[in-house]
Automatic annotation (TrEMBL):
This protein's name: FAD-dependent oxidoreductase 2 FAD-binding domain-containing protein
InterPro entries listed in its UniProt record: FAD-dep_OxRdtase_2_FAD-bd, FAD-oxidoreductase_2, FAD/NAD-bd_sf, Succ_DH/fumarate_Rdtase_cat_sf
Domain called FAD-dependent oxidoreductase 2 FAD-binding: residue spans: 41-141
Keywords: FAD, Flavoprotein, Oxidoreductase
GO biological process: steroid metabolic process
Pfam families from the UniProt entry: FAD_binding_2
GO molecular function ontology, one term from the record: steroid dehydrogenase activity, acting on the CH-CH group of donors
Highest taxon in the source lineage: Bacteria
Keyword Repressor included in the entry's annotation: no
Cofactors (names): FAD
């Protein structure tokens, strides 16, 4: 995955956002630059990534155990999202987490005013974007490319227009 891309056709037959060939080209560049590392063993991969080998081996073993049990008590993933890491070559990258979008946040009304617990608006306080609540609480529909950025900018613009008109 790169950003919100998807490699495989959607359940309804719609084309993926990025074809596999695009990702292969991207990955080739990332391998040449050393961002993606390849190794025949997990220990070797850990060394190439500058990670403690014992800890990475234990993490991979735990992942495989969860896959074999078809149950993930660590991250609560549904069984169909679990996969084993057993077959060489192994690939690794050093990465970190980023906030994609929130499934919770501060509840707002249709004027983007922040709401108190009792549902009444707080005068003068407006919230848009990732801080505003529950837009993606049911699903993150990645067939609608740009939805998160789009609603963030659109709602922000609507608040600005509203304030400019006061
Ligand atoms: C990897 C990735 C891929 C994504 N791909 C897509 C995509 O393809 N399509 C899509 O629509 N959305 C995508 N998103 C989601 C989208 O980027 C976010 O939902 C959107 O940027 C949220 O906008 P925002 O203004 O709420 O927050 P942000 O863009 O996070 O803006 C918050 C700003 O506040 C600043 N800030 C934080 N604290 C303070 C402070 N104390 N004082 C002053 N400033 C502060 C931050 O520096 C930042 O500039 C992606 C997100 C990620 C992480």
């Amino acid at each position: 995955m790169h950003g919100c891309s998807r490699l495989f056709p959607f359940d309804n037959g719609a084309a993926p956002n990025n074809g596999i060939e695009v990702v292969e080209q991207m990955n080739a560049g990332l391998m040449e630059s050393g961002f993606i590392q390849q190794a025949d063993t997990i220990e070797e991969l850990a060394e190439k990534l500058g990670l403690p080998a014992d800890a990475l081996v234990a993490t991979v073993e735990r992942n495989n155990e969860n896959y074999d049990n078809q149950e993930d008590p660590d991250f609560n993933k549904e069984p169909f999202r679990l996969s084993p890491v057993r077959k060489a070559p192994f690939y690794g990258i050093r990465n970190t987490g980023m906030l994609l979008a929130t499934i919770d946040g501060i509840n707002i009304n249709s004027s983007m005013q922040a709401l108190r617990e009792d549902g009444t608006p707080i005068e003068g306080l407006y919230v848009t974007g990732n801080d505003s609540g529950a837009f993606f609480s049911g699903t993150y529909p990645n067939l609608v490319t740009g939805l998160a950025c789009g609603r963030t900018m659109t709602f922000g613009r609507m608040v600005a227009k509203q304030l400019a008109a006061q």
